[in-house]
């Protein structure tokens, strides 16, 4: 098992570019594979989660060439995928498994999805249940709640579905099924979750409408291959934003970050905490807003976080907890129950880890209270097999009184393979 020790830094300085957005990278492979003609993808994230999606489509007969810079996907059209001869292994990736469930349900073949020990513990009924209402035949452990999932492809009918959770994975699974379904598939959610699928469906020419009343996809229309440039992942940039805010003497420019408003909750939260974050050179790339982000060390204060900002920052809560740990006063997180069903239970994992380095944390069912500490203590903590827990605690180490060691750090490769070299590049000692 790998572990990594971070020493306190004297500043976070310079310029970095973070790897491509994970959500957009998954979707580019999926839509490129079922479109007609060639799709090229630049800036694709070569993390383990996205490689799992890429391998799944190769296993269904799609030719995907990778010269190290550009992916070239020879799209097969809506009905061109072939039955895979083995289980499709989604590894640690919830996005691969939930979106593929929606895409495979209407195929005219049999397929099985599985993943690692963490993914096999995560809830799948949230996609299995609405897909079943569309006519899908999907079996899984615990009555369809857990993977492995076995899918017997069937013709589907569009439904109107009101989701009880703001989940882009649920929405996207139904949208992908909706591409094949008879009639209209409509999805409504309590708050808007990330809308990369909506944007990319439109980019590929799908029959789609979206507005305050949710998203509607009409089935049967072929997609056309496109060229895609993937922006930098704001969820990866978030670790370096917090690092530069909490380590005194920092000034960091993060170039080419995706700033889709359904993902910028982290910027809103850190700004409300008193952080200095400037968006420079705002532009649009492949239908997605992009900017450079300039971050300077700031004295942070505790705030209350709940409501519509929660899904817009859902993957950033572990690192927001680190910012809260060194802020002045209490930070209150509520309506964030979804954190309990991520790669690990992120409320419990961050509470355990922050307590281990001297921070006072109270867990609630749907969030936590974090008392800002003068300084974080040195210590050893674990990743719980979760990439974002590992990286968040390593960022905490940059401003602790002594070294912080994080055990079981291999998981960082799922989303951010260049995390360590970037950290070493910008941390002044
Ligand atoms: C994702 C959606 C989110 C997020 C995940 C990626 C996506 O999950 O946490 O990392 O690409 O659609 P939920 O849909 O479960 O909120």
TrEMBL record:
Extract the CDD domains matched here: EPSP_synthase
Residue limits of the Enolpyruvate transferase domain? Answer: 7-421
* This protein's pathway: Metabolic intermediate biosynthesis; chorismate biosynthesis; chorismate from D-erythrose 4-phosphate and phosphoenolpyruvate: step 6/7
Q: Where does phosphoenolpyruvate bind?
A: 22, 94, 122, 169, 346, 388
Instruction: Tell me which Gene Ontology terms the entry assigns under biological process.
Output: amino acid biosynthetic process; aromatic amino acid family biosynthetic process; chorismate biosynthetic process
Gene Ontology terms for molecular function: 3-phosphoshikimate 1-carboxyvinyltransferase activity
PROSITE patterns, from UniProt?
EPSP_SYNTHASE_1, EPSP_SYNTHASE_2
Note the SUPFAM superfamilies from the entry: EPT/RTPC-like (SSF55205)
Enzyme Commission identifier(s) = 2.5.1.19
UniProt keyword annotations, A-Z? Amino-acid biosynthesis, Aromatic amino acid biosynthesis, Cytoplasm, Transferase
Q: Does the keyword Protein biosynthesis apply?
A: no
The record's active-site residues are: 315 (proton acceptor)
- Enzyme class comes to transferase
Q: Residues that bind 3-phosphoshikimate, according to the entry?
A: 22-23, 27, 167, 169, 315, 342
Location relative to the cell? Cytoplasm
Similarity-based family: Belongs to the EPSP synthase family.
Q: How does it assemble?
A: Monomer.
* Function comment: Catalyzes the transfer of the enolpyruvyl moiety of phosphoenolpyruvate (PEP) to the 5-hydroxyl of shikimate-3-phosphate (S3P) to produce enolpyruvyl shikimate-3-phosphate and inorganic phosphate.
Q: From the Swiss-Prot or TrEMBL record, give the protein name.
A: 3-phosphoshikimate 1-carboxyvinyltransferase
Native species of this protein?
A: Geobacter hydrogenophilus
Q: What is the lineage of its organism?
A: Bacteria, Pseudomonadati, Thermodesulfobacteriota, Desulfuromonadia, Geobacterales
């Amino acid at each position: 098992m790998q572990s990594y020790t971070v020493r306190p830094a004297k500043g976070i300085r310079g310029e970095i570019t973070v790897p491509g957005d994970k959500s957009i990278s998954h979707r580019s492979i999926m839509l490129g594979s079922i479109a007609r003609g060639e799709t090229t993808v630049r800036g694709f994230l070569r993390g383990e989660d996205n490689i799992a999606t890429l391998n799944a489509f190769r296993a269904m007969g799609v030719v995907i060439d990778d010269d190290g810079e550009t992916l070239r996907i020879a799209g097969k059209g809506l009905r061109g995928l072939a039955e895979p001869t083995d289980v499709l292994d989604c590894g640690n990736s919830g996005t691969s498994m939930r979106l593929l469930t929606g895409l495979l349900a209407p195929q005219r073949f049999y397929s099985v999805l599985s993943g690692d020990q963490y993914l096999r513990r995560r809830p799948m009924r949230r996609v299995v249940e609405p897909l079943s209402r569309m006519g899908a035949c999907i079996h899984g452990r615990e009555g369809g709640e857990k993977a492995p999932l076995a899918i017997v492809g069937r013709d589907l009918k569009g439904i109107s579905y009101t989701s009880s959770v703001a989940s882009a994975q649920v929405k996207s699974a139904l949208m992908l099924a909706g591409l094949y379904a008879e009639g209209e598939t409509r999805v409504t959610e309590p708050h808007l979750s990330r809308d990369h699928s909506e944007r990319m469906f439109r980019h590929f020419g799908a029959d789609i409408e979206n507005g305050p009343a949710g998203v509607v996809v009409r089935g049967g229309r072929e997609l056309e291959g496109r060229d895609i440039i993937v922006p930098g992942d704001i969820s990866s940039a978030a670790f370096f934003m917090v690092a530069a805010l909490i380590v005194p003497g920092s000034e960091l420019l993060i170039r080419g970050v995706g700033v889709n408003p359904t993902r910028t909750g982290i910027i809103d939260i850190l700004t409300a905490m008193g952080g200095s974050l400037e968006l420079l050179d705002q532009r649009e790339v492949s239908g997605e807003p992009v900017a450079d982000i300039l971050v300077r060390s700031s004295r942070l204060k505790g705030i209350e976080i709940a409501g519509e900002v929660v899904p817009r920052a859902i993957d950033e809560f572990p690192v927001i907890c680190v910012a809260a740990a060194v802020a002045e006063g209490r930070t209150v997180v509520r309506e964030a129950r979804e954190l309990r069903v991520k790669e690990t239970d992120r409320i419990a994992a961050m509470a355990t880890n922050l307590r281990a380095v001297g921070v006072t944390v109270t867990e609630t069912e749907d969030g936590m209270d974090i008392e800002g500490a003068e300084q974080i203590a040195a210590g050893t903590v674990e990743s719980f097999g979760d990439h974002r827990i590992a990286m968040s605690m390593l960022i905490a180490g940059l401003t602790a009184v002594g070294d912080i060691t994080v055990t079981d750090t291999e998981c960082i490769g799922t989303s951010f393979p260049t995390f360590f070299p970037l950290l070493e590049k910008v941390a002044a000692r």
